[in-house]
Amino acid sequence: MGVGPTIRFGHTARVTPPSRRRSVVLALLFGVLYAVLAYSVTQDRAPLDGFDVEGRALEDWADNSRLALDTLRLIEELFGTLGMTILTVLLVLALVVRRQRWAALLAAVVMIATSLATTFFKTWLGRDRPEWQGTDFSPLNSFSFPSGHASSAAAFAAVLVTLIVLFVRRASLRRLGIALAVVWWLTVCLDRVLLGRHFPTDVIAGSLLALTVYFLALALIDPRPRSTAAKAEPLPEVYTSERRLAVILNPIKVEDVGQFRAIVSEMAKASGWSEPTWQYTTIEDPGTGMAEKAAVSGADLVIVCGGDGTVREVCAELAGTGIPVGIVPAGTGNLLARNLDVPLYLRSAIDVALNGQDRAIDLVKVGGDGIEDTHFMVMAGMGFDAAIMEGVNEDIKKKIGWVAYVVSGLKSLMFPAIKVEVQIDDEEPSVHRARTVVVGNVGFLQAGMPLLPDATIDDGILDVVIIHPRQFLSWITVAMRVLRKSTIVDETLDRRTGSRVRVRASTDTPRQLDGDSIGEGRELWMECIHGRLLVRVPR
C-alpha cells in the first residue's frame, strides 16, 4: 500500500513527484502476481486448492455465532457496490470542494478502473462461488474471481493512504489514519471468507488487481496541487528589485528542517527568487528580532513558517514597512492562513508565498492591564475561549493537534459567567453578563465555523461577539445560531462592530491573543489599524 518515496517536512511526509518508472514497476509486479494467481486457480489447474479449502473452516467457525453472522452481513451490505459508490462520490466531491482536483481525479480513475477490471476478469475467468456459502442467507450466483468487495476496498484504502500522506499534518494522526485504512480493508477481505462468499485466493486476487490499477494510475496522475508559477502569468512588478528572500522559521514546527530548507530553496530558485537567508525563532524571541533583521537587510519578501503566534510576531514587526509577508502555516490553528485561503498543504503554501499576489490587511493594536502593548491578527478574547487556550495540554496537543482544543473546550464549557463592560468607539459602555467575549479581525474558526460571519480582514472594522448561554444545553442553541449565521441578537448571543473596542471584566479573567494565553486580567482595549500589512494570498 506504498506511495513511493517521501520527503518529511512541516509535520508531514510529502510525496515527491511520483516516479513513473517506480510506479510502473510496482504495477507490473502486482499485475504479474495477479496473473499467476489467476492462472493457478482457474479451469483444471488447482495447486492452491488446499489453501482455498481452509476457507471452509473459517466459514464453519462464523456459522456458530449469530452475532458474528449479523455483523459480517452488515459489513457485506455497507461495503458492497452501492456503499463503495457512495463513498467514492463523497470523497471525490470533498476533494473537488477543497480544490484538490488532481487528487479527486486520481480517486475517481482508480475506483472506476478497478470496478471495470474486476467485472471483466470475473466474466472472463468464470470461477464459481464456494459450495459452502452460508445456509442462513441466499447464496450468490455470480462469478467469484476476483472478489469485488476486496478490490474496491483495497483501491479505496490505497487512495486514502495517499491522501493521508499528502494532507494530514501530524505524524501521529497520519499513522492512525493509515492503520485504520489498512484494518478496514483487511476486515472487508476477511468478511468475504468468513461468509463463505469467496475463496481466500479470490480476496487476495482482488487486492492485487486493485494495487495494479492504483500504481498504473499513480504513474499517470500526480495528485499534488499544481504550482501557481506553472499555470499563471507573472504579476507585473511596479519596481525592479533583486528579489531578495528571507525566511523566518519556527524550527519545532517542522519534522525535518534540512528537507524543508531544501524544498523552499528549490522552489524559490524555480520562481526567480534569490537564495533565501534563514533565521530561526527561539523561546526568548518568537519572531520580532528576526523580522526586524530581515527588514533592515533589505528583504523584498519575508516568508514566515510557524503557528499563529509566530506569524503574529513577524507580521506586527513588518507592518508599515511595505515588505510583503508569505505565510506558511505549520501550527495547530493556522486561523490567519485559513481566513486568507492560504492552503495548509505546505508545498502549496510555499508556492503562494513565492508567487501569490499582495493584499493589504488590517492589524489590531491591543493592550490591557498587566501586558505590554502589542498586536494581533486574528482574534482576542476574554472568558471561555481564553480558558480553552489556557487549559490545553501541550503533550496532548503535540500528539493529536487541534483535537486537544476540543478536549479542553469540553472541560471549560461551563466557565462561570462574568460581568463585562463593552465600549465601542466613543459610545457609552454597555454592561453584559457573558461567558466569553471575542473580538475578531477575521470571522472563521477551524472547520469553517463562522463565529463572526461579517468580519473582513481588510475593512478597518472589528467584530465583537458576546456569548452568554445560561445552561449547559444552551451551548447547542448557540452553536446552531453560529452555524446558521443567524442575525438575531439577544442576551445569549450579541454582536457589535467598531474600529475601537474596550472590554472590562469585573474579576480577573483568562485572556488570549490569536490562540495564545496571555494570563488573567480585567481589561483589553483594541484598535484596528486599517490596511497596515501586506500579505501574500492566492491569485
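The above is record 1. Record 2 follows with the same two-line structure.
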Amino acid sequence: MSIEKKKYILAIDHGTSGAKTAICSTHGDVVDWIFEEVPLHIFEGGGAEQDPDDWWNAIMNTAKKLIDSGCVPVEEIVGVCNTSQWSGTVAVDKDGNHLMNSIIWMDTRGQPYIKKLHKSLLQVSGYSLPLILKWIKITGGGPTLSGKDPIAHILWIKNQRPDIYEKTFNFLEPHDFINLKLTGKFAASFASIHNHWLTDIRDINNITYSKKLIKKAGVTPDKFPSDLRNSIDVLGPITKEVADTLGLEKSTKVLMGAPDLHAATIGSGAVRDYEGHLCIGTSDWLICHVPFKKTDMFHGMASFPSAIPGKYFLANEQEIAGGALTYLRDNILYHKDELLVEEAVPDVYKVFDKIVENTPAGANGLIFTPWLYGERTPIDDHTIRAGLHNISLNTTREHLIRAVFEGVAYNVRWLFYYVEQFIKKWVKKERPGMKKGDFIMPEINIIGGGASSNVWCQIFADVLNRKIKQVENPIQANARGAAFIASVGLGYIDWDHIPKHIKISKVFTPNPENRQRYDKLYSEYLNIYKLMKKWYKRLNE
C-alpha cells in the first residue's frame, strides 16, 4: 500500500442546512469547497421534511461549479464519497424515484406508534422493559420515545400514508439515497442502517438484519436494502449521467461512505480508541471510538458500528448547540421585519464573539438552557424547553449573548460526565498507571462551525476543565472524514496515518480563575432541569 501518492476525492457533506461539496486530497487537505442552502419544511405536530430533489440539485450544482473551477485536474479525482445527515427516511420506488419528501431526524410524528410499541405492564421511563432489553441485546439500543428514529418515520408512513407505504420499494437513509443517485444501486452501509434498530451488531464483523426485530416492529422486511456493506467498500462507478453532467471520468469510483457523525469522528482525527472529539454545529455531539459493545439506556448513549470496519464508536447527540446562536440572531436580535433591512445585518457571529470576549465569565449569573427542541442526551425528553434564568434589571444584551455560549457548554458538560463514565472502566484497564484525579479524557478535539470561535473554545475548556484542541478548518471535518474513508477504501492511506494529517490551529487550556464560578453555575444548571422538567411536561406534552 502506498502512503505517499496523493490523488483527490470529491467529498459531499450533505447536512440539514444544505450541501457542501469539497475537493480533498487523499491526505485530507481541503483544496476548495462550495455550499448551497436547502429549505427545511416544519409542520405542526412535529413534522420536519426536506425535498430530496433539493438535496440532489444542491449537490450537483456545487459539485459542477467546483470541478469546473479547475482547482485540480479532473483526471486526478479518483473517488466520490458522501456523508449525509443521519436518521432520516426517503421512500423510493423500484426505479429510485422518491415518493414523498424525506422525513428527517427532527421529525417526531411517529412518536405515538413507538409509544404503542413500548406499551407494557413493566415499564421504565416509558419504555417496555422486556422489549427494550431484547432490543439492546441485539442492536445496542432501540426505538426511542422521541419518535425521531427512521423506524418511527416508517411506522408513521405505514399508518398515515398507506398508499406511499405500499408503493415503497426501499426506505433509504438520506446517505443511501444520495449513493443511489450517484450509482443507481440500492444499498446501505452498516453505519447508516443502524439507527433503524433492525440490525444485529453483536458480531461487529458480520452485521445482518434481525428477523425477530423486523417482525416485532411490524414492518415489511423486503422494504429495506438487502445489500449491506462497510463504509470503505466501493459501491460502484458513477452513472454515465452523473459523469457527463459533472465532467468526471466514467471510471470514477463511489465509496459507500457514512453518515455525518461517523465521518466527522474520522475527520476530527480522533480515530484511536477513547480519543474524543466534540462537534459544535446546529446540534452537538461528543464521541470517541471504543473496542466494545455497551449501552447506557438511561442516558441515550451506546456503541454503534463505526465507519472503521470492525470498530464501534460511542454515539450520542444533543439537539441544539450552534442552533441557539442562529435562533438568537434570527428570532431575537436581528428579526427580519419592516424596521430592519437585510443589508443592515452584520457578520453576526463575529459580533457575538467580540461581545462575549468583553463580557465577564458567568454572564452575571444568567443561565441559558438550550433545549429549544427538547433533548436527546443525557436525557431523552422532548417536552423540555429553552429558557433564560436569573434575569434582573442589571441583565444586559451582553450577558444574554454570553449566557447562550455558556449554556451550550453546560449542556455539553452534562453529556461529558456520562461519556467519561461510559469508558471509565476500560480506560483504567488499559492505563494501569493512572492516579487518582487523572482525567479519563484529558483533551478533546473540537470541530464544526462553533469551533471557529476562539472564545467559545475557551469557554468549553473552562466549563469542561479539559484541554480543547481546535482542529484546523473545523467546518470541513465531515468532508475531510468522507475523503479519508475513500482514501482508505481505495488504498491510499491506512487508518493509523490519519492523525498525522490533522492540523491543530490552537490549544485552549482551562482558566483556573473561572473554575469556582463555572462549577457553581453548572450545578444550578442541573437543578433547573430537576425542578422544571415536570412543569415543561405539563405545558408541552
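The mean pLDDT is 94.
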